[in-house]
Specification:
Elements: E1 2-4, E2 26-28, H1 33-46, H2 67-82, H3 89-102, H4 107-114, H5 119-126, H6 131-142, H7 145-157
Antiparallel strand pairs: 1-2
Length: about 160
C-alpha cells in the first residue's frame, strides 16, 4: 500500500502541500499482479531510506518532478518508440479506472482508490465503453445466454 498524505501538481508549480479534497488523502492498494510487481520495483528503487518525508520521484535537486518533465523526457519518447499515440498523465488514471471497472471492482472502492470526492467525478473517468468491451463483459458474466437472448430479440423484432 502507498499512503497519499500530500500532493503536488502543475497548478501549484510543483509546490508540495495539502491534497485538493479530503478523499485525496488515502491508501492506494496495489494487490493485482502488476501492482505487486510495481511495489517490488519501488522498494528496490527507494532502498532503505531513513527519511520518511523523502520524495520517491524527485528532480536532480531533490524537488518534485514537474508533469512536463515526466512527459517530455519519459512518457512521450516511450510512446513514440512503441508507435503509440501521445498521451498525458490522466491517461494512466483513466486506464486504472477502466481496468478496475471491467474487473468488477465495487464502484465505491474505485472512487476511494482514485481519491475522488464523489461518484460523479469517478464516472467522468469512465467515458464511453467500446462495444466490444461491453459484449465481452456480458459474455464473461452470462456466457452464451446473451447470444440466445439477442437472437430471440432479433427474431421477435423481425
Amino acid at each position: 500500500m502507498i499512503r497519499v498524505d500530500e500532493a503536488s501538481d502543475q497548478r501549484s508549480a510543483g509546490s508540495i502541500g495539502q491534497c485538493k479534497n479530503a478523499a485525496a488523502y488515502r491508501y492506494v492498494v496495489l494487490l493485482d499482479p502488476e501492482g505487486r510487481k510495481a511495489m517490488q520495483v519501488l522498494r528496490r528503487f527507494v532502498g532503505s531510506t531513513s527519511d520518511p518525508n523523502m520524495l520517491v520521484f524527485r528532480s536532480k535537486r531533490g524537488g518534485p518532478l514537474l508533469e512536463t518533465t515526466i512527459l517530455n523526457q519519459g512518457l512521450h519518447p516511450a510512446l513514440k518508440a512503441l508507435g503509440l499515440e501521445r498521451g498525458g498523465m490522466h491517461a494512466f488514471r483513466r486506464g486504472c479506472n477502466r481496468r478496475w471497472e471491467l474487473a468488477g471492482i465495487n464502484p465505491a472502492v474505485i472512487r476511494q482508490q482514485m481519491g475522488h470526492s464523489s461518484a460523479t467525478m469517478t464516472r467522468l473517468y469512465t467515458g464511453e465503453i467500446p462495444p466490444e468491451d461491453v459484449a465481452s463483459a456480458f459474455s464473461m458474466k452470462f456466457g452464451s445466454q446473451i447470444v440466445v437472448l439477442e437472437n430471440m430479440e432479433n427474431e421477435a423484432a423481425a
